[in-house]
Amino acid sequence: MLHGGKKSYFAAVVCVIILTSTVTLSYLRLQRLSHLPKVIQEGSRCRGEITSTTITALNDNRTFIISPYFDDRESKITRVIGIVHHEDVKQLYCWFCCQPDGKIYVSKAKIDVHSDRFGFPYGAADIVCLEPENCDPTHVSIHQFSYGDVDQLPRFEIKNRKAETFSVDFTVCISAMFGNYNNVLQFIQSVEMYKILGVQKVVIYKNSCSHLMEKVLKFYMEEGTVEIIPWPITSHLKVSSKWHFSMDAKDIGYYGQITALNDCIYRNMRRSKFVILNDADEIILPLKHPDWKTMMSSLQEQHPGTGVFLFENHIFPKTVSTHVFNISSWNTVPGVNILQHVHREPDRKEVINPKKMIIDPRKVIQTSVHSVLHAYGNSVNVPMDVALIYHCRVPLQGNLPRESLIRDTTLWRYNSSLIMNVNKVLYQTVLQAGK
């Protein structure tokens, strides 16, 4: 009798599993169907104004579009990098105009607000839409509704539509330059170190900087090293210079840094073999290799299929200096001389050092500041004997006596090239007589 009861119980469990699976599959199918592009207009022309600004507010003033990117890594989608209010923005649609037939397709978007919002009401978001199967749209409009006048909607160019061959090996993404940034000497030293280590492109999301810094940026832009992305986030939102809402209750954290980093990854996905995500006062210093190219070849050989390499941050306090490399002409330039700061703070047992990254952009879906949120393949922590982040800034352990700090002169291996290159830039920008 008991045996029969067990059979009945088993049969009931199987029925429940089958029923649940059927309902789930039906729901998923319906969900996908609801997101499929539908033709709402034919024989039209794409007349909406094409937007060229970096940050565009939609009419709801709760959604801000940065840029759409074609992404065919899983299916044929347009992924729009944006900023949204995590509660107020419930529904958005992609409006695609297909030429030359002039059909307007509307796709319901999946709004994916990144998990690392740190308590702020606004956060980075991926607005993801399935594209029409029989058309490769070049532009898209984003709207709160599936109906309306397409001519009244701003249009955004869908980037990454064409396959490109890599134009560079390494691109550094710096986000964001703000607060009338004027650390001129350290910035030039960092850029020249990046170039020595193998960078061909430095992308800067610029909110504000000093007049002198503008001069330096202009030089680097003309040289072809720096690309400036205007970042007028303060025109749209109340911005915090802190990373968490509890420290400063504004709309969005740290000048929208996370959104800018994600945009920088997609912007360079088809043109750069690697993307480095760090700040202007940070340099990933290889200890076993002369440059990033040889270091990354070695790391990829050891960790095949890995798309994210994490490097540990180490503070070199700018309050502790050495008299070596006290170059008189540099003393008139605002900012820190990194060659004079070669003492690093020791690790603290109870504190995990934050990390910064060198990534393969084609393997990353979403990133935060110190780790990726979604990626294809693995993330690897690079040991400190291979490389570390030289981070020259105000101390975190300010009460430590000098003898408790660790003298680390790795940076000095590059001193002759660095001094020569920095002098060259300074004499063409900051130190020009009478300018």
Provide the CATH topology of the largest domain: Spore Coat Polysaccharide Biosynthesis Protein SpsA, Chain A
The largest pleated sheet is described as: 9 strands, mixed
Shape type: globular
- CATH architecture identity of the largest domain: Alpha-Beta Complex
Order of helices and strands: HEEEEEEEEEEEHEHEHEEHEEEEEEEEH
Measured by DSSP, the beta-strand proportion falls in: 25-35%
What distance separates the N and C termini? 100 Å
Structural notes for this entry:
By secondary structure, the protein is of the alpha+beta class. The chain folds into 2 domains: 41-157, Immunoglobulin-like; 168-430, Alpha-Beta Complex (Spore Coat Polysaccharide Biosynthesis Protein SpsA, Chain A), CATH 3.90.550. It contains 6 helices and 23 strands. The strands form 5 sheets. Strands 11, 12, 13, 14, 15, 16, 18, 21 and 22 form a 9-stranded mixed beta sheet that branches. Strands 1-6-5-9-10 form a 5-stranded antiparallel beta sheet, with no helix packed on it. A 5-stranded antiparallel beta sheet has the order 2-3-4-8-7, with helices on one face. The longest helix is centred in the N-terminal third of the chain and has 34 residues, at 2-35. The protein is globular, with a radius of gyration of 25 Å.
